[in-house]
Amino acid sequence: MKQFGITNYFQKNANIYIRDFDTSYKENREDLIILDKDGKLVEEIIFTGPWSDPFGKFSGAIKLKDEPGMLVLIESNNNPAPNRDRIYFYKTDGEGNMSLLKEIKVNTDYVPLLNYLLELENGDILWNALFRVRGGPSFIDDRTITSRWSRESLGLSSSADHEKDNGMKVYPNPVKSTLLMSNPDFEINRIQVFDLEGKKHMDVNFSPSNQQTVEISGLSPGMYLVQAIGKQGQLIYTGKIIKE
After folding, report:
1. Fewest CB within a 10 Å sphere: which of 27, 33, 180, 218?
2. What is the pLDDT confidence band of residue 199, given thresholds at 50, 70 and 90?
3. Is 205 helix (H, G, I), strand (E, B) or coil?
4. Is 163 helix (H, G, I), strand (E, B) or coil?
5. Among candidates 87, 82, 92, which has minimal Cα distance to 129?
6. Do residues 151 and 187 lie in contact, with contact meaning Cβ atoms separated by under 8 Å?
């Protein structure tokens, strides 16, 4: 029997963002789904894992204006070291692939909750979050902090050059045998390959490098999910590949 936990996000002129956690698979799968106001599917990001361990917890998203994809916020305040107490900003490409843009260390005494994102007319991002004392009573000493981030500070490109937002290069795709993954900003330490039901088919560790290759000729033809993981255990990329 499938079990779902759903969170809705509404945005002016609007897309609806739904987090859909499905525990019916042997390995948990979590989908971030974007629907337009008429209920038509716009984009689906598939996570395997479960997503809440070890990479963090989905905590907010906005559809970016006048460009494909969205900005996604992940918080890892309950995760084990070394990637505990961090906020991660990711950018999707509108086609179901997601890359890490920015990693932020937060105060270890406070847990960020109820994150809300808003894109301003000039492209800057407002991040509003309720911070709670770790292990403390609810609502006592809570503080709400709003911060403003330029596109450049989050790793987003200027509005005229969206192609630079996705730092991860995955090619060839479709692929017959050797898959190459490269990212100029984050070193890749591990690559995992799953089918669309969340079953793991490959899990390869490397010495950290900005470019890695993995041999997938042994996989059956079809669509797979590939995840690249950094040397500190953070998720750098998740996306779909087609094996010919």
Report:
1. 218
2. confident
3. strand
4. helix
5. 87
6. no
